[in-house]
Design a protein that fits this description.
This protein is 57% helix and 11% strand. With 730 residues, the chain is α/β, with parallel strands linked by helices. The strands form four sheets. It has an eight-stranded mixed sheet, sandwiched between helices. Strands 3-4-2-7 form a four-stranded antiparallel sheet.
Length: 730
């Protein structure tokens, strides 16, 4: 540790250890945790055996139960008269339908039927009244004096042991039941499935009967309505004259015919007038009317034209041989003129005929229009009758269609009711079997689980005990956590001698405890302050009952037995205990020396069992800390260093008073006595900080009251094993 304010550095030789790698270093490593678990193997075994005893006790006292399961397959719903449609096929049940059926299976009404059917009210497992004592009946704890079972409580008990659920994503429903009786469990699961199917059949039969009765009544009513509506149609048609011909009424047919005739007459008139107008325009314009279509179509004119053409050919031939004045030529010309005249007369007749045809066509059109007007006037009143007629016809058609639909449904209902009278929409695909061994508890599985759980619990308890352990257990742990040298350990002595551990130094000078103190002696003798050996040793602890006084007295005796001039100073002016440990009477001591009331030769006494000298604490002082921090105390220590090879100072615990911090500045070495696996690490850490803040001198840690049997489980260090070897006590 570095020097503070000029204080010379102190070294414990090869026992010096470096500080932790980082502040807040882990208090426990994984390897130490494993070693700690091994060290606590008794705790693990006890925890495991305790858990196994509880497991065996539970297995011996728990009531075995039997859990069985029957399975139902839900099929497509069919045969329901109230829900049939010829155009839609029945659909398989969906998830909502499955959940609905599960609710039906667990309905209180069905469970009530199950209780009555299997007489579960006579079983003490389900009937709470059968489990009541006579004292309970006399004290009025039963439901009524007649002994009638509490039905609702029985239903609750059955439901509490019943589990109905869907198997995965299938349409299979599992009915699971748990009972203390294997036969009862199987009977309840199977009978509940049977009652559910019987209830379906009953509901379906009642539904079919109700639906067919309702359909029959509806059919009778519809037949009367159809007859009434059809009679009303025919009566109104007769009264209004709206008879049907070719899909329409007579007035409608007449109107259609007149429209057709009028259209044809108007077309014929237009054609005749066009022909007449064409012929008249040709005559008026002086054109050859012979080109008119009516003229060209006349057979007489065509014959006259042929004669004209032949006569003109004869005239042309005769003109080659005869003069125009020749009688033949004149006769031929006269015949030609006569033909022209006949053609002209015939053309006039044709034009006159066209005019007559035009007048006739116009008269026909006028006649048809008049007839059409009259018929349209009549249709105005007939349309209202026809609207009413169509309404009556629709009413009759609707009643007729509804009657046909109900007749079809009634026939299907009868056929379906007969076919499905004894079928349900669910079938039992797996029946519950009576078990020979209980399903709970399973002894092998429970024991296996108990073994693993017990081991796990024991390990958890040990891990928590190890992790939350308060104190230090190994040298490595001390040096790693605190960064402070580990000076050794002292074992827990099994025998309680008068004078404590210091007495064993005299009784067994080669015993294990004496060897442990000699190990501490070696560490002190290796401590150096500059070029000289450490001579003043301060022994303190974090708190009381850690063995600092026993350690101080034991160390003083060992040093004295080794031939060193050794003085043990009891600096605990508040609660001195050195004289009690050594069995000395109370005498004047350090307090009197510091106050100047006595000299050295009056306060130093020799130990009864060794060559060590003892300076007791003396009488009480009003301010012990101030007295120890005085220059007089420094003078005393310097004087003692001149007279003795080693001065061992026993002072109060650091957490109890500030005396240790004051004295640590004046002494060469401070030994912090720490009780093994007891003193809190956090407390030790705070104490080390307090001592470091008060003095820069080196502090070493000594573990006391070590359980060697447990200690060997925590470490395999050669030095520590050697120190703890029992054969050293020989």
């Amino acid at each position: 540790m570095s020097n503070i304010q000029g204080t010379p550095s102190v070294s414990f030789g090869d026992r010096r250890r470096a500080a932790p790698d980082a502040p807040g270093a882990s208090d426990i490593s994984p390897w130490e945790l494993l070693r700690g678990l091994w060290a606590r193997k008794e705790l693990i075994v006890v925890a495991f055996l305790g858990f196994m005893c509880l497991a065996f006790f539970w297995l011996m006292t728990v009531t075995p139960t039997y859990t069985v399961e029957s399975r139902l397959l839900l099929a497509t719903r069919a045969g329901e008269v109230s829900n049939f449609d010829a155009n839609n096929l029945p659909t398989p049940p969906d998830n909502e339908a499955l959940q609905s059926e599960i609710q039906l299976l667990t309905s209180r009404a069905l469970i009530g039927r199950l209780i009555d059917d299997l007489r579960l009210n006579q079983s003490a497992e389900f009937n709470p009244q059968l489990r009541q004592s006579i004292l309970g009946r006399l004290s009025g704890k039963i439901d009524n004096a007649s002994g009638i079972p509490d039905r609702e409580r029985m239903i609750d008990r059955v439901l509490g042991k019943l589990s109905v659920y869907q198997k995965g994503t299938s349409r299979v429903i599992a009915v699971s039941f748990t009972s203390v009786n294997a036969r009862t469990a199987a009977n309840v699961a199977n009978r509940l499935a049977e009652l559910y199917i019987a209830q379906q059949i009953e509901q379906k039969a009642g539904l079919n009967t109700e639906a067919t009765t309702w359909l029959r009544q509806q059919i009778e009513d519809l037949r009367a309505k159809v007859q009434t509506s059809e009679a009303a149609v025919e009566t109104f048609r007769s009264e209004s004259g709206l008879f049907l011909t070719n899909g329409s009424t007579v007035p409608q047919q007449q109107l259609t015919d007149l429209n057709s005739q009028l259209s044809l007459a108007e077309a014929a008139r237009a054609e005749t007038e066009a022909k007449l107008q064409n012929a008249r325009s040709l005559v008026a314009e002086g054109n050859n009317v012979n080109s008119a279509a009516a003229v060209l179509q006349s057979s007489l004119i065509q014959s006259l034209r042929q004669q004209e053409v032949a006569l003109r050919a004869d005239i042309a031939q005769m003109s080659e041989t005869y003069l125009p004045s020749h009688p033949k030529m004149i006769s031929a010309q006269a015949n030609l003129a006569d033909l022209d005249g006949q053609i002209s007369k015939e053309v006039d007749k044709i034009i006159q005929g066209l005019a007559n045809d035009a007048r006739v066509a116009d008269a026909r059109v006028s006649s048809l229009r008049e007839s059409l007007r009259k018929l349209q006037t009549r249709m105005g009143s007939l349309n209202q009758d026809e609207v009413q007629l169509r309404a009556l016809e629709r009413d009759a058609a609707t009643n007729r269609a509804l009657l046909e639909s109900f007749l079809k449904r009634y026939e299907e209902a009868n056929a379906r009711a007969e076919a499905d009278a004894r079928t349900a929409n669910a079938t039992i695909v797996s029946r519950a079997q009576q078990l020979t061994e209980p399903t709970f508890p399973k002894t092998k599985e429970s024991l296996t689980l108990a073994i693993f759980a017990g081991l796990f619990l024991a390990l958890v308890v040990s891990v928590f005990a190890e992790v939350f352990s308060r104190g230090f257990r190994t040298a490595e742990q001390v040096e790693r956590v605190t960064g402070t040298p580990f000076l050794g350990l002292t074992p827990e002595l099994e025998s309680r001698r008068v004078g404590g551990p210091a007495a064993s130094i005299l009784a067994e000078p080669l015993g294990i405890y004496a060897e442990a103190i000699r190990s501490l002696q070696g560490s002190i003798m290796l401590a150096r302050i500059g070029d000289r050996r450490a001579r003043t040793v301060l022994i303190t602890s974090s708190q009381k009952d850690e063995g600092k006084t026993s350690t101080a007295t034991s160390l003083a005796r060992v040093l004295a037995m080794g031939g060193y001039r050794t003085l043990l100073v009891d600096a605990d002016l508040r609660a001195p205990s050195v004289h009690l440990t050594l069995g000395l009477p109370v005498q004047a001591g350090l307090s009197e020396l510091l106050t100047g009331r006595v000299a050295f030769n009056h306060v130093i006494r020799q130990d009864i069992g060794s060559y060590a000298h003892i300076m007791q604490a003396g009488g009480p002082l009003p301010n012990p800390t101030a007295a120890l921090a005085s220059s007089q105390m420094q003078w005393v220590l310097k004087a003692l260093e001149q007279a003795y090879d080693f001065v061992i100072i026993d002072c109060p615990p650091v957490m109890a008073a500030a005396d240790a911090k004051v004295l640590s500045k004046m002494t060469d070495v401070t030994i912090l006595v720490t009780r093994w696996s007891f003193t809190s690490r956090r407390v030790v850490g705070r104490v080390l900080k307090m001592l470091s803040a008060a003095s820069g001198r080196r502090v070493g840690i000594l573990l006391t009251r070590v359980n060697l049997r447990r200690y060997r489980r925590y470490t395999d260090s050669v030095i520590e094993e050697y120190t703890a070897r029992p054969d050293r006590a020989a």
